[in-house]
Amino acid sequence: MSFIEVKQIDKSVEVSFARSPVNALNLPLLTELHNFLDNIPANTNLIIFSGGNSKFFSFGLDIPELLEKNRDEVKGIIISLLNLCKKIYLLDQITIAKINGHATGGGCMIALSTDFRFMINNKSKIALNEINIGLSLFESTIEILKEVVGNKNAKEILLGGKLLNVDQAINLSLVDTKYDDENFFSNIIEDFSKKDLNIIKDMKDKIRSKNKSALIDQDDSIEKFLDIFYINETQEKLKKIKIKK
After folding, report:
1. Would the pTM of this model clear 0.85, i.e. be above it?
2. Cα gap 14→183, rounded to integer Å
3. Which of 69, 106, 190, 210 has its CA 20 to 30 A from that of 148?
4. From CA 26, how far away is CA 81, in angstroms rounded?
5. Pairwise CA distance, residues 179 & 99, whole Å
6. CB hemisphere CA count around 15 (13 angstroms)
């Protein structure tokens, strides 16, 4: 069973999460995304990440499933997510998050790693809301967030942990713009498909943060996250999270 769907149009590829109903991230889904990124079709210069037909872009990590795993297994899933986000962030191709629904936690992390974030104009919410469930975040995620939204907005997003509607997210620079229907992407796909991949790569290399060391998540930092994950108070909060299967 596949948890992603890949559709190619000219020089663009849309990768849709397909783990109904909320596109919760587990190791098989993350592994499929890694495999796709390691084997991107030739001549691709635009990659769009989407929540497909779900009302969620992605709920984030499958917390109920994580609670059933041992510490080493949880650590492996965390590392897989972090490496995926860094891989997306460092891609040569132009990347877009087509945020078709709610994007929280790890779902927001994936969206944040793309070059552009376009969010559906409805009641969907986006957030890095880990602080509200007793969890922290990682150096690489915070470094990318600061680069996208700036220090001041990063503090508001991280320390507030609020579920942001599309206008609030745009105001904080977490989302670039909103869209109403699929037609919004037709011109974008046509425009970006005309651009030269070598020039895209060169420009992205020059735009990205020069502080590449900040994208490295030290093992002791991940272990500290796991320590917090296994605190009784945190576990009790996490056990209250339910995902419809």
Report:
1. yes
2. 14
3. 190
4. 9
5. 9
6. 27
Q: Name which of 68, 134, 146 is nearest 105 in CA terms.
A: 134
Mutual angle of helices 151-160 and 139-149, in 10-degree steps? 130
- 27 Cβ contact list (under 8 Å, min separation 6): 76, 77, 80
Q: Is the dihedral of CA 175, 177, 183, 189 positive or negative?
A: negative
Q: Which residues are paired to 13 by β-bridges?
A: 8, 47
Which 3 state secondary structure label does DSSP give 210? coil
CATH of region 4-183: 3.90.226.10
Give the other-Cβ count within 10 Å of 113's Cβ.
24
Phi-psi region of 134 (alpha: psi -120 to 50; beta: other; left: phi over 0): left
Query: Per DSSP, which regions of the chain are E strands?
Result: 4-9, 12-17, 24-25, 46-50, 56-58, 60-61, 94-99, 102-104, 116-120, 126-127, 177-179
Task: State how far Cα 75 lies from the chain centre.
Answer: 18
**33-42, 132-141, 187-196 — which is least confidently predicted?**
187-196
Residue 210 has a pLDDT of 63
